[in-house]
Design goal:
- The protein has 391 residues and is an alpha/beta fold.
- It has helices at 3-7, 20-30, 36-51, 57-66, 71-77, 84-101, 105-108, 126-135, 137-140, 144-147, 176-190, 208-219, 237-244, 265-274, 301-304, 311-319, 336-349, 356-369, 375-386, and strands at 150-154, 157-160, 198-202, 224-228, 250-255, 285-291, 327-331.
- The chain has a 7-stranded mixed beta sheet.
- Helix 4 runs antiparallel to helix 6 and helix 17 (336-349) runs parallel beside helix 19.
- It is globular.
- The N and C termini lie far apart (71 Å).
- It comes from Methanorbis rubei.
- InterPro entries: AAA+_ATPase (IPR003593), DUF815 (IPR008533), P-loop_NTPase (IPR027417).
- Residues 194-316 form the AAA+ ATPase domain.
- This is AAA+ ATPase domain-containing protein.
């Protein structure tokens, strides 16, 4: 059977044909090579697409097969039975893709074509490899959740962040006790134990957002994913939760810099979610939010003296939103010793050999010019020193 026909026999993995590499490979394999110019165009267009990702066809096929969102992998993820017909189709299609992955330039290039760029191939066992992948679906995921680990919500669609913040736990200094509480709750989520929604509250620049992102980077290989939801998108959270509820991975819905003004309609949306609507009761999703406001809502003197006959009850409901988080962790500005300890650790990390008294004096002056003693101020100061921007 011609190789070009093999690709078109795909059913479970049919969506792969929409990818440019597969589409151009299909055109190339269907060409008989009698028209050298046409063949050369098909050939170079295919290689150009492949080179965008890799120069190894086998590895590209393996990666895209493992990341495929198809009926079989969804059944496995939802722990539903796989019919004999689907199991048979799966094995046959994996054999087809394995055969395609072994194609070398020499297998298809007519003689006397002249120089053409080459690609590599590797012997792979897609049937066994895919079975192992499916067995670890709760850690590796499928579809976009296999290819990426941080996402945003845009127009009610979950989209991957192609260049996520690479913040690592090892690069964060100070706040170890606070960070350990967040890590413990996250590990409980990953282990299928009860986990709660978390509010990270405190001064700006203390590393609240960095903590969440670093934790996701640290445990993404264990099946942890982050979806950032903006405050204006809170009403989308129920639909996001519904989409993710049957996914075998674990998700943090991350709301950064959360705060409300009085009468803000988004307040009610978040309150309903935190109070545990039917859509929110899933074991694979938690909400992590950061805020500079302890009670999340800006309360004015006029609201305290308002004309509501039950003003105390109204005020209490407004300022108690934070209590609906299962865990509230405070990140306060460090004192002088803690701040300088962070400065010292960062200086060591960057290989700076500045006398300590000079380093600390400059750090204190930088804090005065910035927003005070914070990990962010320490980081900026050390980066400026490392870049020789300041003396």
């Amino acid at each position: 059977m011609q190789r070009s026909v093999l690709l078109h026999r795909l059913v479970l993995f049919r969506s792969l044909l929409d990818l440019p590499v597969y589409h151009k490979l299909s055109l190339l394999l269907a060409d008989d090579g009698t028209d050298t110019a046409r063949f050369t165009d098909y050939y170079t267009e295919f290689v150009a697409e492949l080179y965008y990702y890799t120069d190894n066809l086998s590895e590209y096929i393996r990666k895209t097969v493992y990341e495929s969102d198809n009926l079989h992998i969804r059944l496995v993820a939802e722990k539903k039975p796989v019919s004999p017909h689907i199991a048979s189709a799966l094995e046959e299609e994996l054999r087809i893709l394995e055969q395609i992955s072994c194609i070398t330039p020499g297998d298809i290039t007519p003689p006397n074509t002249g120089f053409l760029p080459q690609w590599n191939t590797t012997e792979i066992d897609l049937v066994r490899g895919y079975a192992e992948h499916a067995a670890n679906i709760h850690q590796v995921g499928y579809g976009i959740y296999a290819a990426h680990h941080m996402f945003i919500v845009k127009d009610d669609h979950i989209l991957p962040l192609r260049y996520p913040d690479p913040q690592a736990l090892a690069d964060l200094y100070g706040y170890e006790a606070e960070r350990e509480k967040v890590i413990a709750n996250t590990l409980a989520l990953l282990e299928g134990k009860p986990a709660v929604n978390v509010l990270l509250y405190g001064d700006a620049g203390t590393g609240k957002s960095s903590t969440v992102k670093a934790i996701v980077n640290e445990y993404s290989s264990k099946g942890l994913r982050l979806i950032e939801v903006k405050k204006s998108q809170l009403e989308s959270i129920p639909s996001v939760i519904e989409e993710l509820a049957s996914n075998p991975l674990k998700f943090i819905l991350f709301i950064d810099d959360l705060s409300f003004s009085e009468g803000d309609g988004d307040f009610t949306a978040l309150k309903a979610i935190l109070e545990g609507s039917a859509a929110a009761r899933t074991k694979n999703i938690v909400i992590y939010a950061t805020s500079n406001r302890r009670h999340l809502v800006r309360v004015t003197f006029s609201s305290r003296a308002g004309d509501d006959i039950h003003v105390n009850e109204t005020l209490e409901e407004t300022i108690s939103l934070s209590a609906r988080f299962g865990l509230v962790i405070t990140f306060q500005k460090p004192d002088r010793d803690a701040y300088l300890a962070i400065v010292s650790s960062l200086a060591k990390e960057h290989g700076l050999t500045i006398p300590q008294d000079v380093l600390f004096k400059g750090a204190e002056m930088h804090a005065l010019r910035s927003s005070g003693r914070t990990p962010r101020a320490a980081k900026h100061y050390i980066e400026l020193l490392a870049a020789n921007t300041i003396q």
